[in-house]
């Protein structure tokens, strides 16, 4: 009789269960914490007296787990993989290794950076950073990115640069309600300078269009200095001479578009 009463009371006490998120795992068999039952967080391994406390608990490792599928965290993980490979000569680490690494915050800052600036080619930029032995604390600096970008616009595939320029000009036309063929005539010097420095407008567009060449020839010295690393006329003359057929094709496209 006493055993029946005890079993009934035990069942009633344990019948209520806290509904928990699917991604949270709590040990089914609680460990002992002094004289009280304790539940362990799977991320930081701290123990708590109640399962409900574990479910509300937000530690650093759990927070990192919850943001692991965000774009900036994925870029950060890719950076960590390359660091382990090129710096330490190790194989591909697991994602959980990244979350527990001392490099996590630095890689995450870089991930935020490439997402925020709409980096033209994050993989190429990362490779350049490692090749140039740039300290990881400098990876998210504008001046470092500009240095890479100024060389990238001369080495990328010419059609990639031109297609990106076409998209940028088309977006300007839609937002300003202007014919996109008038970009170099009506977008304004400040806007065009910014687009060139960000890589949105390539030298292939500037030097293969009549309006682009005219815009550049009318630039004041100070403005020309701002974009010279990206529109070095001597270097672009060499680029055009290396790809004569493609240069003619791009020029014809620009002419037909009113550029």
Question: How would you characterize the overall build of this protein?
Answer:
The chain is 62% helix and 4% strand. It has 259 residues and is mainly alpha-helical. It has a three-stranded antiparallel β-sheet. A hairpin with a 2-residue loop joins strand 1 and strand 2 (36-40). The longest helix is centred in the middle third of the chain and has 19 residues, at 158-176. It starts with a helix and ends with a helix.
Give a quick set of tags describing it.
259 residues; mainly alpha; three-stranded antiparallel β-sheet; 16 helices; 3 strands; 62% helix; 4% strand; elongated; disordered N terminus
Kindly summarize this structure in a few lines.
With 259 residues, the chain is mostly helical. The chain has helices at residues 2-14, 51-56, 60-66, 71-86, 95-99, 104-116, 122-131, 142-155, 158-176, 183-186, 189-198, 203-207, 210-217, 221-227, 233-242, 244-256; strands at 31-33, 36-40, 47-48.
Show the helix and strand layout.
Blueprint: H1 2-14, E1 31-33, E2 36-40, E3 47-48, H2 51-56, H3 60-66, H4 71-86, H5 95-99, H6 104-116, H7 122-131, H8 142-155, H9 158-176, H10 183-186, H11 189-198, H12 203-207, H13 210-217, H14 221-227, H15 233-242, H16 244-256
Helix pairs in contact: 4-6, 4-7
Number-wise, the strands total: 3
Radius of gyration: 29 Å
The dominant shape is elongated
Helix content: 55-70%
For the termini, the CA-CA separation is 96 Å
Name the beta content range: under 5%
């Amino acid at each position: 009789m006493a055993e029946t009463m005890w079993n009934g009371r035990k069942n009633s006490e344990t019948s209520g269960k806290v509904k928990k998120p699917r991604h949270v795992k709590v040990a089914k068999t609680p460990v002992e914490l002094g004289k009280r039952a304790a539940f362990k967080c799977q991320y930081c391994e701290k123990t708590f007296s109640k399962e409900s406390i574990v479910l509300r608990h937000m530690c650093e490792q759990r927070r990192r787990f919850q943001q692991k599928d965000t774009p900036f965290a994925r870029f950060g993980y890719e950076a960590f993989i390359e660091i382990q490979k090129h710096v330490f000569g190790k194989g591909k680490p697991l994602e959980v290794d990244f979350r527990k690494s001392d490099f996590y915050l630095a890689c995450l800052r870089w991930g935020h950076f490439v997402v925020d600036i709409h980096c033209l080619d994050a993989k190429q930029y990362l490779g350049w950073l490692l090749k140039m032995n740039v300290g990881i604390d400098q990876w998210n600096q504008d001046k470092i990115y500009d240095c890479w970008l100024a060389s990238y616009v001369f080495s990328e595939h010419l059609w990639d640069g031109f297609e990106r320029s076409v998209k940028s000009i088309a977006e300007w036309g839609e937002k300003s309600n202007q014919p996109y063929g008038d970009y170099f005539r009506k977008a304004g010097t400040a806007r065009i300078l910014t687009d060139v420095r960000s890589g949105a407008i390539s030298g292939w567009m500037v030097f293969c269009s009549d309006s682009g060449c005219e815009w550049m020839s009318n630039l004041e010295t100070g403005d020309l200095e701002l974009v010279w690393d990206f529109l070095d006329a001597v270097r672009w003359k060499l680029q055009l001479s290396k790809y004569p057929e493609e240069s003619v094709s791009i020029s014809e496209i620009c002419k037909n578009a009113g550029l």
